[in-house]
Amino acid sequence: MPPTGATARPALSRVEDRRLLTGAGRYVHDIALPGLLHAAFARSAHPHARIDGIDSAEALAVHGVEAVLTAADLPGITMPPPNPLVPGLQTNDFPLLATGEVLHVGQPVALVLAATAQAAHRGAEAVVLDAEPLPAWGDHDPAAPEMARIAHRSGDAPARAPCVVGMSHAQPRVVALALEPRGVVAAWAEAEQRLDVWLPTQTPWRARADLARALGLPAAQVRVMSPDVGGAFGARSSLGPEEIAVAWAAWQRRGAVRWAASRAEEFTAGMHGRGLRLAGELACSAEGRFLHLRARLQASAGAWLPFSAVVPARNAARILPGPYRVDGVDIQASLRRSHTAPVTIYRGAGRPEAALLMERLVERAARRLGCDPLELRRRNLVDAAQMPWRTPTGEMLDAGDYRAALDGAARHFGYEAERARQAQRRAAGELVGIGAALYVEPCGQGWESARVTLHADGRAEVASGSCAQGQGHETSYAAIAAQALGCAPQQVTVRQGDTAHGPEGIGALASRSMAIGGSAVLRAAQAVARRRAAGEPLPISAEEIYHAPAEAWSYGCVIARLAIDRETGRPRVERIVWVDDAGHVVSPPLARGQLVGGLAQGLGQALLERIVYDDEGQLLTGSLMDYAVPRADDLPAVELHSLHQPTAANALGAKGVGEAGCIGVPAALLNSAADALSAFGEPELEFPLTAERLWRAMAGGPTTE
Question: Is it the case that residue 646 has pLDDT exceeding 80?
Fold first, then answer.
C-alpha cells in the first residue's frame, strides 16, 4: 500500500506544461483534415414556439453552402437518455434538430454545411424559422412538469425547540466557461469502415456508446478521441445535440465535418450549472445540539436532460447534513422542466448547495444562541472516533477528523486575534466580516480501468480509461506506476482519451480520477511488478478493472475575512485560510492547482457570475460583456494547509480534491458577507454578492431581483 500521509520524495513537475505553454498542445479545434466541411447551426430565437415552417432557400443560395439539414433529414434521432439515478425519473425525447416545437432560446433548428466556416455561418443566418410563440415555463415554474423527486426522512422534528433558524437562497445559473468552446470533428474512415470523432469530452467511452446508438452503428465502428481539452468542469460529461448531428452528417456524407461553437453559443445553447433554490430550517437545543434539519431543494432541468441532469439535486439531498450529527432530517428535492437551456453537473454538482445551506443555518443558529460559530460547530461535528459514520440520509462517511480541520483552520487564521482586530475595525466604522464553512466531498463510485505495460528497454506505458482536462494525469499516473515498478516517472508514458487504444473506462468526473482511476493504475502496475519479480520475460502487460469498495469522502474547513465599502457596497475578500484533507496526495503541486482552480470558480460564483433570463425566457447575459468572470487580480491571498487522514475506500488511499474550492469557498464568503452586515439585521443574501446588492442590504432595500 502507498503511504497515506505526506511523503518525503521531491515534488513532481507537470510533464504536460512544456507542450501546452509552448503552443504544442493539440485541441479539437486544431484538427485539420482534407475535404473538411464546416458546420453551423440556425437556432431558435423563441423560448417556446410551434414550428410552422423552416425556409432554407436563401441559405442554399449562399456561395459555398452545400446542404441545409432539418429534423426531417434526421428522423427519429433523439438525445441519449439520462442516468436513471432516481426511481421514477421522467424523461422526454429531445430531437437533435427541433421538430414540431422549439423548447428554448438557442435550440438548433437546422444544420448548415459549407466549404468554409464563414459560408456556414452566413447560411445559418439566412435560414428562416416561421414559428408561433407559445407560453414558456421559466425556472422553477410550478406549472412545469416535475421530472424527479428525492426524499430523505429520519427521526421526528421536535414539537417545540428552544432555537429554530431558517434560510432561503436562490442560486443563479452559471456557465462552466471553459477556455476552449465546444467543438467536434467527425470523419468517415472508408478503409476501416469507421467513424472517427474528435471531442473535448470527459467521457470518451460513453460518448462512443451514445454516438453509436444514435447512428445505429456497432460501437466498434465508432472511435472517439479526446486530445488536449481546454477545461471541462462537468459540462463536457454529456454530448449535446450539435455533436451528434455533426457526427451523423459526416457518417451520412462519408466525409469530414467540423463544428466549432462561438462563445455566444456556449451561453445560449450550452449546458449551464447550479440554479438550485434552497430553503431550510435547523432546530437546536438550548445547549446548541442539532436536533432536526428540514431542507427543501428545487432544481431546474431546462428543456432536456443531459446524462447527469439529476445529479446536482440528488447530491445536495444526500450530502446533507454534511459533517454534523443531527438527530433527524426531512429533506426533499425536486427537478422540474423549463423552457431554458439544459442544466448539468458543474464543478461540485450539489455539494456546494448542501454546504451553503447547512453552513448558513449553523451561522444563524450561533447568532441566535449567542455562541461563537466555531464553537457551535465543534459541539456538533462527527467525531473521528465515530468513523465510519452513517448519516441520516444513509451515506457512509468513510474516515476523517473534522475537528482537526476546524481547529487547524482556526489556528492558522489566528481566529481569536482576528476577532479582536475585527472589533477594532468595526469601532472605527469599517464593515468587516469573518465567515467559516466546513464541507464534505464524495469523490465518486464505481469502477475504472488501466493497462500497464513494461518493455524490455525499461520503458513503461500506462493506458487509462480515464482522461484529463487539465488535472495532470500524465504526471500523476506516471508517478503511481513508476513507484510500483521501481523506475523513474520519466520512463513512463501515459496514454488516455482514445477508445481505439485504451481500455474501456468511465472517465474523469466527480473527483474520481485519482481515487478510482489512480487505484486502477496502481493495481495494474503492481500486477506487472509481481510478474516481473517471478521472472516472466518482458514485455509484460497487465490490465485492471478496479471497483472501489466504497466512496471516499474528503473534507475541509475554510475561514474567510471580507470587507464591504460603506459608500459603494463593494466587497473585498481580504484573506482565506483553508485546511483540506484529500487523503494520500500523489503530487502536492497538482493538488494545490486543483484547490486554487476550484477556489477561483467558487469565488466567481459567489461574487460575479450569473445567468439571467427575462420573464419571456430570453437570455440577457449572452456574452462576456454581460457575464462577469474572475480575473487574476480578483483572487485573494489564500493559505492552504493539508491533512492526510487515511481511507480504505480505495487502493490508493486518495480522496477527491477537484471540487473542494467550489464547495467550501462560496459558503464561507456568504457567511463572511452576512457577518460584515450583521449591524443591518439578517438580510437574505444571494449570489453573486455584487456591490449593488450589498449596498441595498445596508440601505434596507431588497437584495434580490
Answer: yes
Q: In whole angstroms, give the CA distance from residue 210 to residue 93.
A: 14
Mean pLDDT of the chain: 94
What pLDDT, on a 0 to 100 scale, did the predictor assign at position 11? Answer: 56
Pairing of strands 108-114, 37-43: antiparallel
The 10 Å Cβ neighbour count of residue 692 is 14
Q: Where are the alpha helices (DSSP H) in 370-503?
A: 373-380, 402-413, 415-427, 473-485
Distance CA 330, CA 149 (A): 13
317 neighbors 333 (Cβ within 8 angstroms): yes
Which strands, in side-by-side order, build the sheet including 638-643? 431-442, 553-564, 571-581, 638-643
Classify residue 539 as exposed, middle or buried by CB count within 10 Å of its CB (0-12, 13-18, 19+): middle
Kindly give, in sequence order, each residue whose CB lies less than 8 Å from that of residue 581, ignoring residues fewer than 6 positions away.
Answer: 400, 401, 405, 554, 555, 556, 642, 643, 644, 645, 655
CA distance 397 to 77: 42
Residues 6 or more apart whose CB falls under 8 angstroms from that of 686 comprise: 169, 170, 171, 172, 693, 703, 704
Strands, DSSP E only, in 134-255? 146-154, 163-170, 173-175, 183-189, 194-198, 222-225
Dihedral angle sign, alpha carbons of residues 687, 692, 697, 702: negative
Quote the cell numbers at residue 385. Answer: 472516533
pLDDT for 9: 46
For residue 595, count CB atoms less than 10 angstroms from its CB and return exposed for 0-12, middle for 13-18, buried for 19 or more.
buried
CA distance 3 to 555: 19
Q: Is the pTM above the cut of 0.85?
A: yes
Residue by residue, DSSP assigns 536-602 as PPSPEEEEEEEEPSS--EEEEEEEEEEEE-TTT--EEEEEEEEEEE-BS-S-HHHHHHHHHHHHHHH
Query: Contact at 8 Å (CB) between 341 and 235?
Result: no
Backbone angles phi, psi at 653, to 5 degrees: 75, 20
pLDDT at 704: 58
Q: Report whether pLDDT(3) > 60.
A: no
At 253, phi and psi to the nearest 5? -90, -5
Q: Burial code of 615-646, b = ≥16 C-beta within 10 A, e = fewer?
A: eebebebbeeeebbebeeeeebebebbbbbbb
Centroid of chain to Cα 461: 30
Question: φ and ψ at 639, to 5 degrees?
Answer: -110, 115
Q: Does pLDDT of 17 surpass 90? A: no
What's residue 444's pLDDT? 76
Angle, CA 177 vertex, CA 172 and CA 181 arms, to 5°: 140
For residue range 432-485, list pLDDT tens digits in order.
Answer: 999 999 999 998 789 999 999 999 999 999 999 988 888 888 999 999 999 999
Non-local CB neighbours of 659 within 8 Å, separated by 6+ positions: 347, 348, 349, 351, 441, 511, 598
Task: Return the closest-CA partner of residue 73 out of 252, 325, 306, 269.
Answer: 252
Give the whole-angstrom CA distance, residue 278 versus residue 425: 33
At 409-434, the pLDDT tens digits run 999 999 999 999 999 999 999 999 99
pLDDT at 36 > cutoff 60: yes
Over residues 516-525, the pLDDT tens digits come to: 999 999 999 9
What cell does 48 get?
417556446
List domains and CATH numbers for the chain. Answer: 36-135+179-232+236-268 (3.90.1170.50), 272-443+551-699 (3.30.365.10), 446-547 (3.30.365.10)
Check residue 507 and give its pLDDT: 87
| Dist. CA 457–CA 477, nearest whole Å | 20
Q: What is the identity of the amino acid at 537? A: P
- As a whole number of angstroms, the distance between CA 141 and CA 139 comes to 6
